[in-house]
Every structure is written in C-alpha cells, then in structure tokens.
Amino acid sequence: MDRFIDDLPPMDLMRSEKMMFVQLIIPVESAQRAVSYLGELGLLQFRDLWLRYERCRFQVKEQDFVVAFNYIHYDVFPLLQLNSDKSPFQRTFVNQVKRCGEMSRKLRFFKEQINKAGLQSSVHPVSGPDLDLEELEIQLAEHEHELIETNSNSEKLRQTYNELLEFKMVLQKAGGFLVSSNGHAVAEETELSENVYSMNDYADTASLLEQDIRAGPSNQSGLRFISGIICKSKVLRFERMLFRATRGNMLFNQAPADEEIMDPVTAEMVEKTIFVVFFSGEQARTKILKICEAFGANCYPVSEDLTKQRQIIREVLSRLSELEATLDAGIRHRNKALTSIGFHLTKWMNMVRREKAVYDTLNMLNFDVTKKCLVGEGWCPIFAKAQIQEVLQRATFDSNSQVGTIFHVMDSMESPPTYFRTNRFTNAFQEIVDAYGVARYQEANPAVYAVITFPFLFAVMFGDWGHGICLLLGALVLIAQERKLSNQMNLGIILSYFDARFFGSSLDIRYQFVPQLIFLNSLFGYLSLLIIIKWCTGSQADLYHILLLLLATVAVPWMLFPKPFILRKLHTERFQGRTYGILGTSEMDLEVEPDSARQHHEDFNFSEIFVHQMIHSIEFVLGAVSNTASYLRLWALSLAHSELSTVFYEKVLLLAWGYDNLVIRLVGLAVFAFATAFILLMMETLSAFLHALRLHWVEFQNKFYHGDGYKFRPFSFALINDEED
Amino acid sequence: MYGFEAMTFNIHGGYLEAIVRGYRAGLLTAADYNNLCQCETLDDIKMHLSATEYGPYLQNEPSPLHTTTIVEKCTLKLVDEYKHMLCQATEPLSTFLEYITYGHMIDNVVLIVTGTLHERDVQELLEKCHPLGMFDSIATLAVAQNMRELYRLVLVDTPLAPYFSECITSEDLDDMNIEIMRNTLYKAYLEDFYKFCQKLGGATAEIMSDLLAFEADRRAVNITINSIGTELTRDDRRKLYSNFGLLYPYGHEELAVCEDIDQVRGVMEKYPPYQSIFSKLSYGESQMLDKAFYEEEVKRLCLAFEQQFHYGVFFAYMRLREQEIRNLMWISECVAQNQKSRVHDSVVFIF
C-alpha cells in the first residue's frame, strides 16, 4: 500500500511548495536594482532583520553551544523575538522612504485637485520618457509649486470678485430699501401716522424707515445705517445679537441675495442674505461693527444719493466683467496644467509606490560588518531558485557592479511559510480553506478536495436544475460533477492517514487511524452501502449487521488503550537511552517531536496521556454520530428548497392562472418571479453556501486539518498594486 | 438600581461602549512613546505617527511641519471621534457627553475674553480655542465690556448660563476678575456634573464621583497654590473650592488659610490617597506637582475601564486622549527646540 501511495502522481495543490531559507549578500551599489528586480519576480519573502533576536538560552542544550561557537548564526537555535530595538526612523533607507512619502503626498494633492476641478485623470498611462526618482521629485515639486501659486492667485481673484459681487448685490437690494421707502413716502404720506410699528411686516417697516429718513439727513438726526451681507444660516442669531447689544434700539432689514456666492476655500456655493441695520449713536456703531466682524458679515457702504448709487453700480459691474474674464482665463490655465499632470498621474503613482516598497524592503536588510554589503534573509520556493539567481545576476550586470550577489541556502528552525500555486479556479477554494486557517507547511491541503466536494455539496443542497440554470449559466461545470459519491466522511480520515504517514508517525496509524476507520465504516459505511444496495435491489443483507457492529465495538477499546501504553514504553526506552549518550537523545527527540505536541514535556505523564487518548476516543465516537447527523442538512436543505419551489409554483402561479383576470395573473406572475429570484435563488444560495462551508470547515477539516501555518507573502509589485487598488 | 445595569445598559449604551473601548485600544503605548522620544525631527514624529491611528490625519500635511499642526490634527481626530459618539448617543448619554465639553467651553470663554482685553485679533484667538468647546456665538464674546454684558449678550444662550449666577457683577473685566470667573464657573460646572452623575446612579455615579472628586481636589490645590501671594482673600479663595470631594469640607478650611507650598503639603498629606503624590516631591517644590497629579489621574482613568456598563469610560477616554495630545505636544516641542533631554519632564505614559 505504501508503494502504491508513493507511486501516485504528484499533486501540486496537495502539499504546499517546498520552501527554502536563503541568505542574500548584495553589494550596496546594486542593492536597489536587485530588490526591485526581485519585486518584479515576486517569489521571495524577505524577513525583517532589524527585529532583534535573542537566543532562548534555556531551550538550547549543552552540545548545541559547541556547535553554536563553530557556526555562529542565530538562526540555528530557537529564537525569541523581542521588541524591536530600533525605531523605524533609524533604519538605513529611512530618508528615501520619507521622500517617497512626501512625493505620494504631492501626488494625492494633484489627484484631489484634478477631482475637484472635475477633470478625469487618464486611467491608461501614456508612455512618456522614463524618469528616475530624483527627476520625478524635482518635477513634482515644480508642479506643486506652480499649482499652489495659481491656486492662491485665483483665490485672491475670487475673493475680490466675491467682494464686488456682494457689493453689487448690497447696492441693489439695500439701495432698493432706501429708494422704495422714499418713493413710498411721497405717495402715501397720510398713512404714516396710522402705521402700527411692527417689526414683522415689511411694508410697515419700510414706512417706519422712511419716516425716520424723511425727518432729515441721517447724520443730523443721529440715525445711521450699516449695510452688508451675511450667510443665510447666521441671520437669525445675528439679528438677535444686534437686538441684545443695542437693547432693541435698532431696525433690521433683510432680503435674500439673488445669487449664491462661492466660498473660495471650500469651493461650495453659499446662500447669503443682505441686511441693512438702522441705529443711532456712535457707541452702537462700534458694537454693531464688532458683531458684524464676529459673525463674518461683510459691510459695504451704500450711498443714499441715487445718482451716485447708479454710478457706483455701473463701475462695479464693469469691474466684475473684467474680473470674470481674468478668472476664467486663470481656471483655463489651471485646468490645462492639471490635465497634463493627469496624463502621467497613474504612472507616477505606480512608480512612487514601487520605489517606496523597494526602500521598505531594503530597510529590512542589514549591513554586514564591512558596511559594503547588505545582508538579507528570506523564504522562497525551491523551484524559484534558478529564477532568483538569474534575476540577481541581471541586477549585478545592469548596475555594473564589480561583485556579484551571494545567494545561498541556510537552515532555519522556523517553520517555513505555506505557498500553494493556485490558478483562477482553485484559488477560490483555497481562499475558502484559508479563511478557516492557513495550512501548516506541507500539510495535506483540503482545498484539493474542496474543489470537487464544495460545488457538489452546494449542488445537493440547492438541488434544483431549473434554479441552478437560472443561478449560473456557467453551472454546467458544477452540474457535470453532480454524481453520487458514496462516502464523504471517510476522506477526512484517510487524509489524516496521509498526514500521519507524511510526518512519519506509524504509531498514530496503527492505533488511531485503523480503529477509527473500522468504527466509522462499520457503522456509517454500512449505512451508505445499505443505501446503495437498496437502490439496486431493494433487498437487505442482515448477515453483515452483527459482524459490523461487533467490529465497531472492538474498534473503540482498540482506539482507547494501546497508544498510551506504547507511548509509555517508548518513553521508558528513551529515558534509558539518555543515560548512554546525549547525542542519541537529541536525534530521537527530533525524530519523534513532530508527531505530537505532548512530547515536548520532558517529564512523561502517563495519566495525562491516557486521559487525552480517552477524550480523543470519546470525541471521535460522538463526533462520528453528530457529524453524520450534520450531513443530514444535505437532505434537509434540498427538501426545503424543493418544497418551497412547489409551494410558490402551485399556490401562487397556478392559483393566479386559474382566474380569468389579466390583473390577477400579472400580480401572481410578479409575486412568483419575486419569490423565485429573492427567496429561491438568493436566499437559498446563501444558505446552501453557508452549510457547504460548515460541512467543509467543521465536519471535514476537523478530522485532520491543523491550519496553523502562515501564508507565503513574497515581495511583489503585482501584490502591492492589487492591495492599493 | 445599582448592580442591575448589566440587564439594560447594552440596549442603548452597548454599541457606544464597544466603540469607546475600541478607541481606547488605539491609544499610544509605552513602546510608541519610546520611539517618539528618540525622534530627531518633527518629520520623524510624523513618520512614526503615520503608523498609528493618527496616520490618516497627518498624511496630507506638507513638510516642514510645525508643532501646532501636529497638535491640531491630533485634536481633530479626537473631535471626530467625539462627534461620532455624540451622534450615536441617546439620552442620558448624550447629555453626559455634552457635559464633558463644558470645561473646554469655560476655557474658551476665558481665552477670548482675556485675548480681547489684551487687544488680540479675534480670528487669531478663535484658532487657539479648543474645538470641543466651541459654540455658535463665541466670536461675539469680544463685544462684551463687563461680566453682566458677557452674560446678557452671549452666554445666556449657552449651557454655561446657569453657572454664571454667582459671577454677574458690573465690574469691568480685568485679569484677576477673569481668573476668578473661570474658577467660579468651573466650580459650578463640576458641582453640576457631579449632581448629574449622582442622578444617573449605579456604577456611573460611583466611578464618576470618584473621578470628579479627584478633579475637584486637584483644582482646590491648584487654586490655593496659585493664589498664594495675591490679593485674593481667604474667604474668596474658600468660595472657589467645589463643594464635594475628599477635601470637602475640613480640608478646604485648612487649604483656605495656607500661606506657602509646604503648608499645602501638610494639609494634603493627611489624606492617604494624596500622600503618594506629595511624597514624590521634595519640600518647597511645586514644579513637578502638575505631572504628579496627571500621573495619578491617568492611573485612575485607566481603572475606569476595568468595570463595564457605565458612562465613566467615555469621560476617561476623552481625558486620556487629551493627555496623549498633551504628551505629543510636549515631545514635539522638545524635538523642535532641541531640548530632548527634557522630554521626560512632562510626558505621562498612559499604559
């Protein structure tokens, strides 16, 4: 059987790629190029060497120290990672990282400006001359300077323009107050005495004013006015404050402005209101001016003389049109500059992002003793060795370096990262498995099976051809796999067999795997068999019943007892062995270590192991029952689905069709379509997916899958771009 | 209903408590401070902060930076968080959250009034105000000439109005008056807040009364020390102490007659919780008192997070963040002025 398994063709997805721990010694002059080439290749995961590693002295055995002095490299020993000793800003290439950060800030600024101006930055970067970082930095600084200058200029212009616009509006409206009240007064002089002085009524207010004004020129009677413009949202509070400050000795007139005014800072349109305040006295004047200032109200003088007013309005209008032309020209100029930046923006952003990533990676490297080389360490898959070496050579050649990069493989006690080469199809299933836990290095990968079983279980639960076709037109692929696999659950245990074999533990196989398999198959395998036989013949085979039950009964103590006793025996042997030679012990340790975490304890506790095994046995027996019950959801969900669809079809569609009324038929059709789309397709898809997920994560993977590895994250520009997008 | 908060608290407060505990997890740690203290320039500080929750707030700031920019942006983050919580809060939590800002409001009022007195530009003053203590008509404070006007024109619309009952005089504003006004307002505010928390009851009352009592006692000590050698009479001084706290009432009597720092020390050492603070200081020293008090406060604020189902965590979080911003300001100032040896003088580690 062993040979048979060894002879099986290799499955790429079954085991993660074999990794190796490598050290790079790169001359400083070619370091930047080498790392950026490696980023393009994307197959090397660098390790941060600035994190200080300390030896865990108590775990290192005596003879290891001898080795340690001969081969001084800290990675030979179990390491303890301590707080980083150096802060990020003390690393070697920190200035370059800062420069990149500053450049990407500028680029963000450009992007924001482009968006604000309503322009589109081109998605497809144009091919321009290739710049290096220094040139780009200078260019960006120039562009930023230019942009800021144009912005501040146009802001100033906008400010002046706003002031003039406000002045114009104040002149028109406030002048209107004064004029209308004058004309009004002449015509209806007699009504004046009968006026009730109410603040709310515009006509009354107006006549009140006119009375005051008519009483004589403002300066003589001490009645003055201030006119201006204020944000609409502040008017109420403004009026109240004026009222309080002058103790009610004032008159407040307001009229909404015709046009909205653009705030130069936020570029938002603001609604404004024009006001005229009448008051008397010098003290009130200072107070009101202060309040105006506090509320951000702009005051503009309005002449009472009509001819003068008209003249001013004319002047203002002419200046406004001049300014408008200037402003437009400014905006055109600015947009032109922004468009030209927009052409290159994406390219520049990519470039800066890449450069920053390169320097971040270089910061993980460390100087060697001579300060002429950078030392880097990391993981790469074994198949990539040639490619990496080729890339490093190219980097050396391209940067005219005298010395080549040294690339060699090292030992590491650390567990390597897990790397599966997936394609577009298998990746989805790999992600489902990774969401539960990343496989331990070289552990059997459930994704291999999930590729088939996941769609299968999903289909069993969704279980409806019609809806299936609606759901995914491409579902033919899945439906083709809709063949009945007789026994799902065995697979998990068989996988645990492969695992155990792989990690070299025959103990687990003989006393755990075999009884488990027998137990499971004698009870539930039989069930499946029964189902198949029943399908075929409809007869029953009573003879096997008793035999299989017996086998299952035997399997339970088989599972429970032998393993702990054998472990004890092994331990005693090992203990004796230690007295003869330390070296032998350590070898043995290494050999046995991966098989079970318990053996890390130096003192061997039999009762503990026994209890553990007992728990394991009970867990397995109970788990077998409950997991089988769990698989009932396959049946339950498919039943629910078919029943629901029947209900909707019969009770809605057929019922509605029974009537000879078009409206009822249409309504019935609509309800049916709605129910089909949202309940049968969307909700059922979700629930079937969820249950398929559960069956994989809980019922399938708990039988063998550790899922405590960590993912291989190579330094790769492609990945960085993906993340940013 | 003490002890029964667990049954109903989460209906309205659970989400926000989770939020505030999440915010708290973002406070800078000792390792962060350690790194920050090693910075050589303000850009280094920015770079370090970009790896923390302050990152998005600082990333678009062009170099060279100024200390004020850093502080401003960090405060902006606090304000954003506060506003988010206030939006989500229901009564009585929203009132509780509003109470937290009244202290800043008082400070802002005092800042504007003092500034106007010294003829500073109002816009410039407004920029210096704490954004949490802003209210609509704050700019109009500049119009007022005396306390009565201050009240009648502006403050009557703000939540501070009731606190003003004790300081409405027609006296012209001067530095001394303003300082007395600040302390009177603060006293009234603390007492009101204290009463409000008592009304809420339960764990909130218990924890908040502890925290507020500490605040009141600290203010009492500060008032005493600052008023030594001024023309403030004993009775006036006595009137500025809040009417609760560990020192109330006997400690207040004794503090009111203190004439130098060592007498204050004598009074405070009678109270066991404050013994540890004063035992850190040598005789006649008052420079490090602030830091000692801050350290004690931070310790107490952190403890508020140990218990669940109460509003004290919101108060504690706001205070801790403010302390953090003070720390950042101090570190940035030290770095900017090349005084790195003094960094540890005023930084209070939170964790």
Automatic annotation (TrEMBL), chain A:
The lineage of its organism: Eukaryota, Viridiplantae, Streptophyta, Embryophyta, Tracheophyta. It comes from Citrus sinensis (Sweet orange). This is V-type proton ATPase subunit a1. It comes from the Eukaryota.
Automatic annotation (TrEMBL), chain B:
The keyword Lyase does not apply. It is found in: Vacuole membrane. It is a peripheral membrane protein. It holds the Pfam family vATP-synt_AC39. The keyword Plastid does not apply. Keywords: Hydrogen ion transport, Ion transport, Transport. One of its GO terms (molecular function) is proton-transporting ATPase activity, rotational mechanism. GO terms for cellular component: proton-transporting V-type ATPase, V0 domain; vacuolar membrane. InterPro entries: ATPase_csu/dsu_sf, ATPase_V0-cplx_csu/dsu, ATPase_V0-cplx_dsu, V-type_ATPase_csu/dsu, V-type_ATPase_csu/dsu_dom_3. Coiled coil: none annotated. Subunit of the V0 complex of vacuolar(H+)-ATPase (V-ATPase), a multisubunit enzyme composed of a peripheral complex (V1) that hydrolyzes ATP and a membrane integral complex (V0) that translocates protons. V-ATPase is responsible for acidifying and maintaining the pH of intracellular compartments and in some cell types, is targeted to the plasma membrane, where it is responsible for acidifying the extracellular environment. V-ATPase is a heteromultimeric enzyme composed of a peripheral catalytic V1 complex (components A to H) attached to an integral membrane V0 proton pore complex (components: a, c, c'', d and e). This is V-type proton ATPase subunit.
